[in-house]
């Protein structure tokens, strides 16, 4: 239980204050333990941070894997759109995990850059595979015109990345949803038959 509380506090504080701005003593204090208690569960600050970061990435990966099973009955258009709306739902439900992933993928501490990139690339590979399968299905069913699948997948991933940033810019659900709908409309109009 203490280990989980330490991870929860660390995720929130690392997301809010950054790696450098968060002291182990601060995490320990929030949980109500002494700083040395952290070392019973984690080697050091880096180990605690990477544990939290990997778990945040893992929760997103699990969410994406669940999506791939749900799309068998939907059209490619509906499936791709649902990925965007589910990404939005993930951000709302898991704000701290989303914040820590976004913050450190964009601005990793220099000494953790390579480790974070490896974790991110693992997630990106999974997501790319899901999207490529949906695009392939759309081409086979005639909903998407014949184009290189990597081109369409990369464009969609860039759309997702842009919407990720937009989510943290706008507090208005209506504004965000309008931007999501407009962006998807433009993507689909260039991809569809």
From TrEMBL:
Annotated region of DNA binding: 23-42
SUPFAM superfamilies in the cross-refs: Homeodomain-like (SSF46689), Tetracyclin repressor-like, C-terminal domain (SSF48498)
Entry keyword Transmembrane: no
GO molecular function: DNA binding
Keyword RNA-binding: no
Stored PROSITE patterns: HTH_TETR_2
The entry's keywords: DNA-binding
Limits of the HTH tetR-type domain: 1-60
Transmembrane segments: none
Gene3D superfamilies registered for this protein in UniProt: Homeodomain-like, Tetracycline Repressor, domain 2
Recorded superkingdom: Bacteria
Protein name as annotated: Transcriptional regulator, TetR family
